[in-house]
Amino acid sequence: MTPNESESHPPVHPEPKSYSTRRDFLLQIGIVLNAVAGFMIGIPVVGFILSSIIKKTPQRIIAEATDWRFLNEQKARAYGLSKLLR
């Protein structure tokens, strides 16, 4: 082995770079976007799993979350009824 041959081969353990390349930047952006996509896909899956634990029927959800007084007022306005006639 001559001295010129040892210089032509890169070292086995190169020193860490002190600068960032375009490839490194795009790799980091890709990792972040994949994490966001995984999170967005995971939200409905978790909701589906938790919904089987809660087990509320659609009728019960509507009954608990609906303000019937507001809807009755809107219905009265739609039919032109005054507050005195109710």
Concise overview:
With 86 residues, the chain is an all-alpha fold. The chain has helices at 3-8, 22-54, 58-65, 68-79.
What does this protein structure show overall?
The chain has about 90 residues and is mainly alpha-helical. It folds into two domains: about 20-55; about 55-85, no CATH class. The chain is built from four helices and no strands. The longest helix is centred in the middle third of the chain and has 33 residues, at about 20-55. The radius of gyration is 33 Å and the shape is elongated. The termini are far apart.
Strand content: under 5%
**Overall form:** elongated
Q: Which structural class matches the secondary elements? A: mainly alpha
Through-space gap between termini: 105 Å
Number of strands: 0
Q: How much helicity do the residues have?
A: 55-70%
Write the layout of secondary structure elements.
Layout: H1 3-8, H2 22-54, H3 58-65, H4 68-79
Which tags fit this structure?
4 helices
